[in-house]
Amino acid sequence: MIPVAKPYIGPEEESAVAAVIKSGMLAAGPKVVEFEKAFGEFCKSEFNVACSSGTAGLCAATSVLDAPRGSKILTTPFSFIATGNSILYSGFKPLFIDVDPDTFMITAEGVKKAFESDPDIKAVIPVHLYGQACEIHEIVEIAHHYGAVVIEDCAQAHGATENDVPVGAIGDLGIFSFYPTKNMGTGEGGMITGSNQKLVELAKLHCNHGAPVRYHHTHLGFNYRMTSIAAAIGLVQLQRLPKWNEQRRYNGNKLSNALKDIPGLKVPVVRQGCEHVYHQYVIECEQRDALTTHLESKGVGTAVHYPTTIPDQPYYKDLGYNTDNLPIAHQLTKTVLSLPVHPLVSEDDLSTIINSVKGFFI
Ligand SMILES: *Cc1c(COP(=O)(O)O)cnc(C)c1O
Description:
Helices cover 41% and strands 12% of the residues. It is of the alpha/beta class.
């Protein structure tokens, strides 16, 4: 079976971890500071805080917003649950708007309309879905016009760019995930980035019990710190990341070139001026479930990102959310299918994937 995700950990990661264990300093230490600096250089972010997961980063970022609890935060219904949950977790109210039928992301136009009808929205959390930047520069401009903060969810987009600018420090805050299946991994881990020094510093405090110095607590906080073990793995994986992203892009382009003319199948739409890093390669197909079964019989692993929108999740339904006004996001849950695109997909694998997909439609 060609798996839809295949994290790689090599001998370099092993010896980096062994060195940390030998040092005796397993919790936060100089390795974490080194990783923060290196990752910040990679995504051109001046302010960087390592944390224990992408979710922790989102919760810290939303927690430090200077807005009355209960205020609205605008986001996408079509993402991993953590995006919406961080808003609820910090005491705010998620406001979902529908996504673009080509990119599956919220658009600048949609964000503008939302602010026009509700200028009191305090923040926007756009998601750079599947490894592609959303209309982030425009979204930041609109949000700032209304005095709102932008938190970029970059959990799937390490190295993705819009107009040659990497995501992560275009908005006030950005968060990355280093879960093993992401474009780079540290076991569990995350990074808070951003252009808004004050908010990133508050998020840093939040990750460390609100204590600027030990046992002196100026804010309410939590323990969202990254371990030195995770940071050591991250430093090695970060070195591998550019080559991996290039391989993902090669694989994605190869799949798209081979599959783009099949009627009944839509290949990913790559936005002009954006560098896609293909965290996922997601096609759309009306016969999604039959295609899934067919591909499985040919040894091609697939996944659905996502089978349910956030507002249609049971917990959200209990809160009164639904997708009545989000028809595109709702429909996508029935048609999207992720094919293997990760760096360990070989030329032979690509041929198998392409022939198997074609075989279904012939
Ligand atoms: C993975 C992911 C997260 C959460 O990251 P974790 O490190 O798993 O907590 C948040 N948002 C999106 C869009 C993700 O894909």
